[in-house]
Write a structure and sequence with these properties.
303 residues; alpha+beta; 6-stranded mixed β-sheet; 5-stranded antiparallel β-sheet; 8 helices; binds adenosine-5'-diphosphate; binds magnesium ion; transport
Length: 303
């Protein structure tokens, strides 16, 4: 189990994280979400022991994670970290980068392992290409494969799919997170993309104003968003009578007391997002079809 016990940290005098507490069981997946600058990357670096805590303690099982002040070499064998700025060896091939930390003692096993990892990140046909020739997204996939090479007990991922295009993202997420679950690897992901979080995370924590403001399952937080920040992570929403109402909760009906005037339609694929005026306030709701401008519609709010 990972235990984060009342940690605080700041760069110089600026507090970034204050009194952070959470736990992650072995094999579980936790997401860290929060606005840009809320301290997600900082928290991952602290979990990795890259910086010294101002207060508190971090444990993985019985081992205390210590920063550079107490630890000559940063990092631990049981933990791997893929930073937002992944650093690879540009002048050697994809396969060589992935196998960099694998033992040469059993060359056949090593090659089989590299092949398996190339398959997970869908880079088999790039095995012998030098990394400097790859796109940003391909490099990110090499960094992910390299982190898995010597299977860690716990994996820290900072915005792991940020450079990867949508063609590859969906299948890569499935490959990676299913692999981690199957191999009982604990995973902590910093992300601002709900697609990384909702289908795969057991728990998500929300950072805001130096603190954890929510710590629950994605499903619970989706259904009970306590703050606009949390709701905004999941999608378009409205504040109506001080209540958070998602755009998909509002439906057009034949008759109701709630009347709005349509202002604009946005095509979203499976539906249109409709911008409308409700008693002087702008609201958004989803509808299968576009609705013409200035049309009056009757709405109901579904629970
Ligand atoms: P996030 O990953 O959520 O976007 P970060 O952890 O990168 O947030 O940054 C949190 C805050 O700490 C930001 O205000 C950022 O400017 C600041 N920060 C990050 N790294 C450093 C650093 N090395 N020195 C000083 N301030 C930093
Ligand atoms: Mg970051």
């Amino acid at each position: 189990m990972l235990q984060v016990k009342d940690i605080s940290f700041g760069y110089l005098k600026n507090p970034i994280l204050q009194n952070i507490n959470f736990e992650v069981n072995s094999g579980e997946h936790l997401s860290i979400i929060g606005e840009s600058g809320s301290g997600k990357s900082t928290l991952l670096k602290l979990l990795y022991g890259e910086m010294d805590l101002n207060e508190g303690q971090i444990f993985w099982k019985d081992t205390e994670i210590l920063g550079p002040k107490h630890n000559l070499v940063v990092g631990y064998d049981f933990m791997k970290y893929v930073a937002q700025e992944f650093d690879l060896m540009p002048f050697i091939t994809v396969a060589e980068n992935i196998g960099k930390h694998l033992s040469n003692f059993y060359p056949e096993e090593k090659q089989a392992r590299i092949k398996e990892l190339l398959d997970i990140v869908e880079l088999t046909e790039f095995a012998n290409i030098k990394v400097k020739l790859l796109s940003g997204g391909q490099k990110q996939r090499v960094a992910l494969a390299r982190a898995l090479a010597n299977e860690p007990e716990i994996l820290l991922l900072d915005e792991p799919f940020s450079h990867i295009d949508n063609f590859k993202k969906q299948s890569l997420r499935r490959n990676l997170f299913n692999y981690l679950k199957d191999h009982h690897i604990t995973c902590i992901v910093a992300s601002h993309d709900k697609e990384d979080v909702l289908p795969y995370s057991d728990t998500m924590i929300v950072l805001d104003n130096h603190k954890i403001v929510a710590n629950h399952t994605p499903k619970y937080l989706f259904e009970n968003p306590e703050t606009p920040l949390i709701a905004s992570f999941f999608g378009e929403f409205n504040m109506i009578d001080d209540q958070i109402i998602y755009a998909h909760q509002i439906q057009v009906v034949e008759h109701s007391k709630l009347k709005a005037t349509v202002k604009k339609c946005y095509f979203k694929g499976p539906y249109f997002l409709i911008e409308a005026n409700l008693e002087g306030a702008t609201i958004f709701f989803e509808n299968k079809d576009c609705i013409e401008e200035n049309k009056k519609v009757s709405l109901v709010i579904k629970p």
